[in-house]
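Target protein
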Amino acid sequence: MKKIIIAIVTILTLSQVNAQTSVFNDLLQKHVSNEGVVDYTSFKADEAKLDTFISYLQKTTPSSSWSDNKKKAFWINAYNAYTIKLILKNYPLKSILDIKEKGKTAWKIPFVNVGGKTYTLDHIEHEILRKTLFDPKIHVGVNCASGSCPKLGNMAFTESNVEAELTKLMKAFVNDTNRNKLSTKKVQISSIFDWFKEDFTKNGSVVDYLNKYADTEISPKARISYLKYDWSLNGK
C-alpha cells in the first residue's frame, strides 16, 4: 500500500509539474520571438498567468529523487520567470541595471520564493546551478534580459528537453554575429566567456569550447578579445 501511495503522489506531482511548466511555455511562446525579443507590454497584460506559474514555484521544492536534468530545468525556469516578473514590476525601463532596491542590484535582491524559501537570482545561478548542477550551457539558459545576453528561448525547459534545448541555444549563441565574431585566426567573443572562464575551460581552452559549437573552425592560436556588453533591455 505504501508503494502504491508513493507512486500515486509521484504521478500527481509529475502531472502538476508538467501542467505548470506548460503555462510558462505558453507565455514564452506568445510573448517572445524566435530571436529572443520580449514583448513586455503584451506580457504585462498576461501577468496574472505568470503569477500562477510563480505561485507553483512558491509551493514546490525540488525533490532529491528528481534527475539532474529535471532539477536543472526547474531552476532555470524559476530564474527566468522571476527575472521577467522583476522586469514587469519595474516596466517600462531601459535596462535591468536600472533596477535597484535598498542599494541592491536585480541579482542581489532577495525576492525569489521557491518552495517557501527566499533566494536571490545570484544564489540560483551561482550556488545551485553552477555548483550543484554544473553545466557551462547553463549560461545560455538563465537570461539577464539584456541585448548581449544569449537570447531568451521561447520555450520552457523540461526534464526531457533541457539538454537538447541548451545545446541548441549555445550553438545559436556562439554563431550569432551580433554576440560573437568568429574567424579562424581572430575571435571577438561575448564577455560571458571571460566572466565565467573557469566554467568554459574545465576540459580545455575557451577556443576548444567554442569549436564544439562554432560553424567556423577556430585555430588554437587565434587571438581572443571580448566584446563590450550591451545591457539595454531585450524587449521592443
User: Anything to note?
Assistant: The mean pLDDT is 94.
